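Quick one: examine the sequence and fold tokens given here and explain what the tokens say about the fold. Here goes:
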Amino acid sequence: MKFEIPEQKKLVYQMVIPIRWGDMDAMGHLNNGSYFRYLETCRIDWMQSLGARPDQDTQGVVIVNAFCNFYRQIEYPGDVRVKMYASDPARATFETWATMERTDNPDVVYAAGGATTIWVDFKAQKSRDLPDWLRAIVS
């Protein structure tokens, strides 16, 4: 099953991640698990840039699903630009989307993924309403 990134979304963050030799699989391509690691790294860096560092004693985001579509193989060496987008804020959730491109081949999407993100109270293990400051960012 293939999920498509929607047209209506808001660019909220981007970062460059160096491709490490250890991220490769036996075929010399970026390992499938590494794509998810890159998506996670970008999402966590974005949250930290907003002052919402993961802390089990407070509130923050978790994901309830994730996907990645692989369009082209990424190979070492190089750098990957991950662009994070947001859309569809609801009471406690919003969607995150990301594209991955090589910095030496900009605007060519090598992979694209996303996740449903939910705001939770970690101690109570319950969802909470998105804070107004975050809703303004993802709307």
Remarks:
- Strands lie at 10-18, 59-70, 79-87, 93-102, 111-121, 126-127.
- DSSP finds two helices and six strands in the chain.
- The chain has a mean pLDDT of 94.
- The first strand starts at residue 10 and ends at 18.
